[in-house]
Design goal:
The structure holds two protein chains of two kinds.
Chain A: E1 2-5, H1 8-14, E2 19-22, H2 30-40, E3 60-64, E4 67-68, H3 80-83, E5 89-93
Parallel strand pairs in A: 1-5
Antiparallel strand pairs in A: 1-2, 3-4, 3-5
Chain B: E1 3-10, E2 13-20, E3 27-32, E4 37-43, E5 51-57, E6 61-67, E7 75-76, E8 89-91, E9 97-99, E10 104-110, E11 118-123, E12 126-130, E13 138-139, H1 141-144, E14 160-166, E15 174-179, E16 182-186, E17 194-195, E18 216-221, E19 229-233, E20 237-240, E21 248-249, E22 258-264, E23 272-277, E24 292-295, E25 303-305, E26 323-325, E27 333-336, E28 342-345, E29 353-356, E30 362-370
Antiparallel strand pairs in B: 1-2, 1-30, 2-3, 4-5, 5-6, 6-7, 8-9, 10-11, 11-12, 12-13, 14-15, 15-16, 16-17, 18-19, 19-20, 20-21, 22-23, 23-24, 24-25, 26-27, 27-28, 28-29
Classes of the chains: A alpha+beta, B mainly beta.
Chain lengths: ~100, ~375
C-alpha cells in the first residue's frame, strides 16, 4: 500500500486522517497515485491539480524521501521507498504569507 | 414560531448563527470548513435546509459544498467551472489583453422556484448554472461573450461577478453586477445580456459615462417592486425605477457615498440601508464611527443609525455580500465586518447588538427566515 500524507485542510475536506493508504495498480507515479487518491476521495478532485489538464496547482508541493518531486514528470516512477510503502508521499501546501 | 438563521462566510470558515424570532439570544455553530475562505453561503428559498457554500483557498482552489439538513452535514458537490469554448481575453490592469482564468466563486444564487437550480457568479467574470443541485455546472456564455467583454477590466479585488438578482415577477429577467464592467440584464433566462449602465457616472474611468466599465459594488431589489433597483457603486448610491434602463444618483446627504453594501427593509420597499466607507483608498468607516445610514424615502435623505454601534476608534469595512435583511416584522437587519463582528438589529435599524465579536474577517452574511 502506498501512503499519502495530506495537509490538514484536505484531511477535513476528504474526511480522512493524516495518512491515506492507497492501492495503486501498475507503476507508482504521481499520476497513478493522484488518480487513485481522487478516485477514492472525489472531494479532492481539483484541489491538488487541475481536473482537466492535470497540471499541479501552483501552491501544491510533492515531497518524498527528503526530495522535492513537485516538478518531476507526472509519469516518472516514484522512489522505490514510496512505491513499497516504506516512506510516504507528502503533499504539502507551499509556505506562503508571513 | 418563526426562527432566523444567519449564514456567515469568513476568511477562515463558515458559521451558522440561529435565534428565535425575538432575535435576542443566538446560538453560534462553527467553524465549518475551518481554514478555508467562504465567500458566500445561500439557502434555497424553496427548501431552506438546502444551502450552498462556496469554499476556496489559494492553495487548494474551489470547492462547492451543499447541505440538505440546514447545515448539520455537508457534502462537496461539483467544482468544475469550465468556460464555454475558447475563453478569449479581457483587459488586464495595464490595459493589455489577459486570458480569462477561473479563480473562485464569489456569489451563489439559488433559484426562486427550483431547489436543484442554482447560479454561481465567478472570477474571472462569468455566470454558471447548475440544474442538479450543484453537481455539474455549465456556463451561461452569452454574458462573457458579450461584444464588450474584451474591454472589461478587473477592479482591485479581481474581475468578479459578485451580485445576482432574479426578478420574482418574471424569472427569465435577471440582473448581474461585475467589477468593473457594470450591471447587465437578461430577459431570456441568461441566454443574452445587455449592459444597463445609463446614468452611471464614474470619474475613475476615461469616459465617465461609458457603456461599460463601471465598478458596481452591489445591487438590491425589493420583491414587491422588481423594476426598482438600488445600487451601491464604487462611489455613488444610485436608483432605477425602470429595470435598469436609467439610473439616478440618490447619495443625498450621505457623509461619503463610497461603500459596498446596500439592502432594503423587507416590509418597507422605500427603506434602504447603506454603510458609508471613507474612500476607495481608506477601506474603513469615516471618523472612527460605525454608522449604518437609512433612507425612508428611497434615497436622497439619509439618517445615521448609531445606537449600539461603536462610535470611536472603529476602523472596519463591510464587504458587498455582508448585509442582509430578514422578513419578520419589524424587519431584522444584519451585517458583518472585516473585524469579525456580526451586528443585528431587530427593529429595522433603530438599535444594534453584536451577535459575535471575534470571528475571522466576514466576507458574507445571509439570513433565512424560517417558519
Amino acid at each position: 500500500m502506498i501512503q499519502v500524507v495530506l495537509p490538514k485542510n484536505l484531511q477535513i475536506l476528504a474526511g480522512v486522517g493524516r495518512v491515506v493508504e492507497l492501492e495503486v495498480s501498475g507503476e507508482a507515479t504521481q499520476r497513478s497515485v493522484l488518480d487513485a487518491l481522487e478516485a477514492s476521495h472525489p472531494a479532492l478532485l481539483g484541489t491538488l491539480r487541475d481536473a482537466q489538464t492535470k497540471k499541479r496547482r501552483s501552491m501544491i508541493r510533492f515531497f518524498a524521501c527528503e526530495e522535492d518531486l513537485s516538478d518531476e514528470s507526472l509519469d516518472a516512477p516514484l522512489p522505490n521507498e514510496v512505491a513499497t510503502g516504506k516512506e510516504p508521499l507528502l503533499i504539502i501546501g507551499a509556505i506562503a504569507g508571513g | 414560531m418563526s426562527k432566523v438563521r444567519l449564514l456567515v462566510g469568513t476568511r477562515k470558515g463558515a458559521f451558522v448563527l440561529s435565534s428565535d424570532a425575538s432575535r435576542k439570544s443566538w446560538k453560534v455553530d462553527g467553524p465549518h470548513f475551518a481554514g478555508w475562505e467562504i465567500y458566500h453561503l445561500k439557502g434555497s428559498p424553496v427548501n431552506p435546509d438546502r444551502i450552498y457554500a462556496s469554499q476556496s483557498s489559494g492553495w487548494f482552489g474551489q470547492v462547492l459544498q451543499r447541505t440538505d439538513d440546514g447545515g448539520k452535514t455537508w457534502n462537496a458537490v461539483g467544482n468544475q467551472f469550465v468556460y464555454d469554448g475558447e475563453p478569449g481575453t479581457h483587459k488586464w490592469y495595464d490595459g493589455s489583453p489577459h486570458p480569462w482564468e477561473f479563480k473562485r466563486v464569489w456569489h451563489l444564487e439559488p433559484s426562486l422556484n427550483d431547489p436543484d437550480m442554482v447560479y454561481a457568479g465567478v472570477e474571472d467574470a462569468a455566470l454558471f448554472a447548475s440544474s442538479d443541485g450543484g453537481t455539474s455546472w455549465s456556463e451561461l456564455a452569452g454574458l462573457r461573450t458579450h461584444k464588450t467583454a474584451s474591454e472589461w477590466a478587473p477592479g482591485a479585488g479581481g474581475m468578479c461577478l459578485h451580485t445576482m438578482v432574479i426578478d420574482p415577477s418574471q424569472p427569465d429577467r435577471m440582473y448581474v453586477a461585475i467589477s468593473s464592467a457594470g450591471t447587465f440584464r437578461t430577459d431570456d433566462a441568461g441566454q443574452s445580456w445587455r449592459p444597463i449602465n445609463n446614468g452611471l457616472k464614474s470619474n475613475y474611468i476615461p469616459d465617465p459615462d461609458a457603456y461599460v466599465g463601471h465598478c458596481v459594488h452591489r445591487i438590491a431589489m425589493h420583491p414587491s417592486r422588481p423594476s426598482t433597483l438600488f445600487m451601491q457603486k464604487h462611489w455613488d448610491v444610485m436608483r432605477t425605477d425602470d429595470g435598469g434602463e436609467n439610473w439616478r444618483e440618490i447619495s443625498g446627504n450621505l457623509p461619503t457615498d463610497f461603500g459596498f453594501v446596500i439592502d432594503i427593509n423587507a416590509n418597507e420597499p422605500d427603506t434602504v440601508y447603506v454603510v458609508p466607507i471613507t474612500s476607495d483608498s481608506h477601506h474603513f468607516v469615516p471618523d472612527g464611527k460605525l454608522r449604518v445610514y437609512r433612507s425612508r424615502t428611497g434615497g436622497d435623505d439619509w439618517e445615521a443609525l448609531t445606537k449600539g454601534l461603536p462610535q470611536e476608534n472603529c476602523y472596519v469595512n463591510v464587504l458587498r455580500d455582508a448585509m442582509t435583511v430578514d422578513t419578520l416584522d419589524p424587519s431584522g437587519i444584519y451585517f458583518g465586518t472585516s473585524g469579525g463582528q456580526v451586528y443585528a438589529s431587530a427593529d429595522g435599524g433603530d438599535s444594534w447588538n453584536a451577535i459575535v465579536r471575534d470571528l475571522p474577517a466576514v466576507l458574507s452574511v445571509e439570513v433565512q427566515t424560517l417558519k
